[in-house]
């Protein structure tokens, strides 16, 4: 968990650095498109703080009021990030409208673009770090932050190309038009982040690949049982929750059934880092002849 906290703190510093560079680029040029890029970076800084808070809360151990832990806190951070992206997009559309009404030539466009692209390179490197390490640490807050930065990088490249086109052609109306396009793209990005986060808040099941691995582990580690059925899974941040019914022969002792359950739980925790496992042991007459067949 310390790794995710360090990455979240790093995002705050990177966010401030990129925001400063992009604001300088806008100040030099007066470009509405570059202003849109800078406005999106303000969201990066705010959501970096939100991600840090969410990760620290999610790391807290279970307590009497939260017996299943605080894992879902990270999803709230991702939802907040999506909402803030949408707010930034609306602000950009407002600035783009003003630019449409009074289009004007840009000051020092090349200098501004060089500074802006330097900020884009920093964002690109950090986005790769957040997405790769966030997936490794199973942190949806870091992954959402990284995916947002990827979108920021792509829009920054588009902004640079558009501003160069406006300078080359003298069609200054392209500047606010480009800002409006950036806003629409940001809106779409914000919606996707909110949608993905809500799926976690709604107790979405694990991926098909992870589910297949869970079934395989149960089938190979439940020697002594005959069947496992009614398997259910859900995930919350880095935590995975599993529960299922395990059918054992009627003459199986409580001790023997407990040993089987321990073997399955240990294998799931070792191979998949499953956080919570609930197994309901049933006698053989409860068999449904479906689900997971135990392999001898």
Give the helices and strands, then pairings.
Layout: H1 2-29, H2 32-58, H3 73-101, H4 109-136, H5 140-169, H6 174-201, H7 208-221, E1 227-236, E2 239-248, H8 254-272, E3 276-283, E4 292-293
Parallel strand pairs: 2-3
Antiparallel strand pairs: 1-2, 1-4
Helix pairs in contact: 1-2, 1-4, 2-3, 2-5, 2-6, 3-5, 3-6, 4-5, 5-6, 7-8
Comma- or semicolon-separated keywords:
Alpha-lytic protease prodomain-like, Alpha-Beta Plaits, 296 residues
Task: Give structural notes.
Helix content is 69%, strand content 10%. With 296 residues, it is α+β, with helices and mostly antiparallel strands. The chain folds into 2 domains: 2-201, Cation efflux protein transmembrane domain (Alpha-lytic protease prodomain-like, Up-down Bundle); 208-293, Alpha-Beta Plaits. It starts with a helix and ends with a strand. The model has no long low-confidence stretch (mean pLDDT 81). Its main location: membrane. Residues 11-202 form the Cation efflux protein transmembrane domain. It is a multi-pass membrane protein.
């Amino acid at each position: 968990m310390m790794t995710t906290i360090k990455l979240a703190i790093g995002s705050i510093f990177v966010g401030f650095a990129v925001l400063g560079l992009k604001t300088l680029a806008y100040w030099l040029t007066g470009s509405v498109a570059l202003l849109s890029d800078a406005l999106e970076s303000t969201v990066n800084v705010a959501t970096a703080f939100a991600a840090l808070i969410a990760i620290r809360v999610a790391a807290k151990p279970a307590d009497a009021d939260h017996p299943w832990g605080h894992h879902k806190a990270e999803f709230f951070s991702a939802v907040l990030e999506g909402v803030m992206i949408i707010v930034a997009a609306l602000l950009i559309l407002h600035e783009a409208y003003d630019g449409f009404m009074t289009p004007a030539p840009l000051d020092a466009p090349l200098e501004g673009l060089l500074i802006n692209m330097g900020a884009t390179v920093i964002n690109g490197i950090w986005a790769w770090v957040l997405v790769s390490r966030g997936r490794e640490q199973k942190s949806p807050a870091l992954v959402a932050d990284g995916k947002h930065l990827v979108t920021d990088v792509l829009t920054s490249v588009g902004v640079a190309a558009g501003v160069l086109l406006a300078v080359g052609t003298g069609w200054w109306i392209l500047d606010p038009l480009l800002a409006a396009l950036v806003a629409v793209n940001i809106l779409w990005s914000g919606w996707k982040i909110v949608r993905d986060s809500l799926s976690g808040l709604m107790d979405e099941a694990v991926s098909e690949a992870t589910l297949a691995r869970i079934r395989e582990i149960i089938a190979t580690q439940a020697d002594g049982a005959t069947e496992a059925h009614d398997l259910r899974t859900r995930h919350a941040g880095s935590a995975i929750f599993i529960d299922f019914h395990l059918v054992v022969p009627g003459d199986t002792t409580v001790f023997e059934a407990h040993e089987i359950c321990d073997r399955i739980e240990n294998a799931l925790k070792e191979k998949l880092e499953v956080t919570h496992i609930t197994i309901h042991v049933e006698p053989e007459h409860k068999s449904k002849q479906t689900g997971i067949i135990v392999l001898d």
